[in-house]
Amino acid sequence: MTGRELDVPREVRQKAEWLGAGGARWLARLPEVIGELESDWQVVVGATLRGGSDSYVAEAMTNAGEPAVLKVRLPHAGESHEIETLVRASGRGYVRLLRHDADRRAMLQERLGGSLDQLNLPVQSQIEYICETLLSAWTVSP
Q1: What is the C-alpha to C-alpha distance for residues 84 and 53, in angstroms, rounded to an integer?
Q2: CB-count burial class (<10 Å; 0-12, 13-18, 19+) for 113
């Protein structure tokens, strides 16, 4: 990843710019951070994923061939206990956390399939799946 221009989504770039100097530093250092994480975690980072605004998110592949997602949160993008929650959840009701680095606000997560709405299921079935997942997630202690 080092030396490549990142395709940072417009929403993420705008939020970083809104954060001022800290956001500008985060944007400037992001390619270097991703290169470090690739080396430290033995992963290859691929295409940028879209849909969020508080993190840079991209496809990744572990050296064992496991598909994953790399997520690097913006600095001061609101208080987040995401890493702690995912560690405690251990995959119950939440995405499974493969690696994390709190200092770099980075996570390597399992890669899930497409979103529920892409499965063309009846709305009632979607609601049932969502409720089942929430019941599992809510067993994680705060």
Answers
A1: 20
A2: exposed
CA of 45: how far to CAs of 40, 65, 75, in Å?
A: 12, 12, 21
DSSP 78: S
Cβ partners under 8 Å of residue 83, min gap 6 = 97, 100, 102, 107
Task: Extract long-range pairs of 18-25: CB within 8 Å, 24+ residues apart.
Answer: 19/74, 19/75, 19/76, 19/77, 22/75, 22/76, 23/74, 23/75, 25/75
In Å, how far from its chain's centre is CA 75?
14
What tokens were used for 120? Answer: 């063309």
Q: What is the pLDDT of residues 42-78, one digit of tens each?
A: 999 999 999 888 999 999 999 999 999 999 999 875 5
Predicted TM-score of the model (pTM):
0.86
